[in-house]
């Protein structure tokens, strides 16, 4: 990492290395947290990851979507109020079903209340059937959270050409919702759940001075 920074013209003293983020004991058994390289500036690292901001909750759990092992593969992040939302999407004409779904949602809404992410299957190159899977999962989660479907965003990572294991995902949603927490552990579990071949999970929160 430091060699990369040197090639970019940044001196090593311009970066501070922080301790790894805290994650739940269960999650850390699968993927350790990455060390954090934070550039010098008018900010500081704070605990919490995605749950650092007031009103955000997160959870991660194993739902049976991965091909092997029992590493967490479902993550959920929610906000107590409408959160301003935007997306940066691929320009590839063969966009995955969750990408198309999120683009359609953000075309009609500038806010969201929940993001559901699964690992194991990317749900890419799966046609209309894959898109309908996304719609069904979004509707199911919206009902559990008492939200409108357009307030829920869906993301998938994993093997291309495979639809999500919909039944496993749907069966896991009630438990996933009960695990939502505003703690550092909740954020850490969600960060682990979205990894695929990653050797570490990546999560950081900063506060501006």
From TrEMBL:
Keyword Amino-acid biosynthesis: yes
Coiled-coil zones: none
GO biological process: L-arginine biosynthetic process
Pfam families: ArgJ
Protein name according to UniProt: Uncharacterized protein
One of the record's GO molecular function terms: catalytic activity
Keywords: Amino-acid biosynthesis, Arginine biosynthesis, Multifunctional enzyme
Signal peptide interval: none
InterPro entries for the chain: Arg_biosynth_ArgJ, ArgJ-like_dom_sf
Domain of life the protein comes from: Eukaryota
Entries under SUPFAM superfamilies matching the protein: DmpA/ArgJ-like (SSF56266)
